[in-house]
Amino acid sequence: MRWIALAVATCLLGCSTPLPVSGFAGMPPAFDPVRFFTGHVRSWGVIEDRSGQPTSPVVTDCTGEADGPDGLHMTQRLTIGTDAPVTREWRMRRTGPGRFEATANDMVGTAIGEASGRAFHWQWTLALSPGNSLKDVTMDQWWYLLDDGSMLNRTTIRKLGYIAAEVSEHFAPVR
User: Fold this and answer.
1) The pLDDT value given to residue 154
2) Cα separation, 35 vs 98, whole angstroms
3) Cis omega before residue 29 (within 30°)?
4) Backbone phi and psi for residue 20, each to the nearest 5 degrees, phi listed first
5) What pLDDT digit, counting tens, does each position of 65-81 carry?
6) Rounded to 5 degrees, what angle do the CA atoms 103, 107, 109 make?
């Protein structure tokens, strides 16, 4: 009988609907990723495999500068484990209230994001091997602004719809 109850509970949890970014409306302070990444920002985090086991540390060093009144050009130096650093060039802009879009040198297409309250959500495709779409992965990112002005990033990396890895990362402005 216990197994039946556990199976039913598991099924019900699997059917739950994730909170949309609009569910964070009214939770100040408002998160603006263009403003957050203007200046010098660093992060430290960890990549976890599909079973949740840590596999590699991840460190970034970001330098962003305003690109017009609603835009940002950011250079992100990304180091995963002991691999050589990779440089990602971002261009982000505010397209409306709580709406953003971005491109990067290793991104396929354009990322569209939405901010509400202290949360930001977007999905984008990372070209792990440019020109070979079979190696592309989807990045599903949730960013949460914390009370101290830093940000928590939670990324789910999917390949062909299946979770390949996840990233937990803390970003903080360098003061």
Assistant:
1) 96
2) 12
3) yes
4) -70, 160
5) 999 989 999 999 999 99
6) 65
